[in-house]
Amino acid sequence: MPRKPIHTYIENEINRLSQRIIDKGPAADEVSYVQLGFHLALQRVMRGNPQPSDIGLLNTIEGMFKEMKILTPSMDILAYFNDNPEHPLPEA
Q1: Cβ(17)–Cβ(32) under 8 Å?
Q2: Residue 91 lies in a domain
């Protein structure tokens, strides 16, 4: 099954979550808002225009990934995405 580049995956998730929030209106759950916020933060960082909170969020995730040995101590999360530009999940 083909795999999607991470940039495409992020765009698709932003669009999907935004539409879910639009469709559900005030009933949209907190999970959708948090997921959208994460994907927007990752997109801003990857585009080179992060907010300080975006950097803090990704640094926290990076630290956890290093602790879990998903990333080596010398790697950063963006290097991982650049070296592995395909999303690890197959297209649905």
Answers
A1: yes
A2: no
